[in-house]
Amino acid sequence: MLVDRNRSGQRCTYNEFKLLKITEQFWSIFYSWSCSTLRNQSEFTILANWIFMSATLSKKAIQQYRDDGFTPAVRIMSKEEAEHFRIRLQAVEAVVGELKGGRRLKCHLLYKWVSDLIRKPAIVDRVETLLGPNVLCWGTDLWLKEPDSNKFVSWHQDNQYWGISGTELLTAWIALSPATVESGCMRMLPGSHKCDGLEHVDTFHKDNMLTRGQSIFEIDENQAVNIEVDTGEAVFFNYRIAHASHPNRSQERRIGIAIRYIPPSVKQLKSEWDSATLIRGKDEFGHFIHEPEPKFDFDPVAAEFHRKSNENYLNILYSGTEWTTHRTWALCIKC
Length: 335
Hints:
This protein is α+β, with helices and mostly antiparallel strands. It has helices at about 15-35, 40-55, 60-70, 80-95, 110-120, 120-130, 300-315; strands at about 1-5, 10-15, 75, 135-145, 155, 170-175, 185-190, 200, 215, 225, 235-240, 245, 255-260, 275-280, 290.
């Protein structure tokens, strides 16, 4: 029976009305307590952000993921926390210089801050909503587009090259600076994750940021959508979705990090050996060697494991080509 209206003017049931009132009372009490307890507005913001960011994906976001292959952008950390991660990235760059090739791939084994990020509850809680309680991190990639750069990413589907069985691998793409149309945000083709596989051509274009310059040429750009992601936000997408991004024409770096999550049930089909990090739950399948957690940047134990894991990863990505090392980092070597 409809008994009242909520703040939006929509009619609601008695139980819905009760829940609304209880929620309003909670936030009223929370606000009163915070004003008397927390020392300043910034502490209130941090606490409120912590509460909101531990939420799971909404039913609407989950349905969009099933239908379109990606979620809307959701906030998983404050802009201040994102800036903290960006500073730690810049600290690494100050020591080793420009990050190329293997230093951008599987980087959760090299940099402690990335290792922390892949375990962040605000991210993993949402991943669990889509994959279930048992979660592995299979890979991490840094996507750095310098200001006014010609670097771009052509249309492609990740599942064509990664060798991961099934359809469940997903990427959490986190923005550490604004990913806008001007700065070269991702573009996606809604529903393309339902295709078995679109035809790709290896181009090895010098400005293409993909390992092989792999490209899908039969894409209707009128059907594609821009995926703008603000600093501290994330978008989650299926690894079969067709996606791309244009060059960064802004005056600010576009900094993104892609985290690849899988359930333990999937397998690597292109290699007898592969590794992943257990993030949550249990791994009862043993299809992947579990990776060590670095205690600090360039922890020698994790760095040595990164060397072997990254070499295997590149062999998978370059399967069927002449390349054996990342083409942005080394010369082409005949196999």
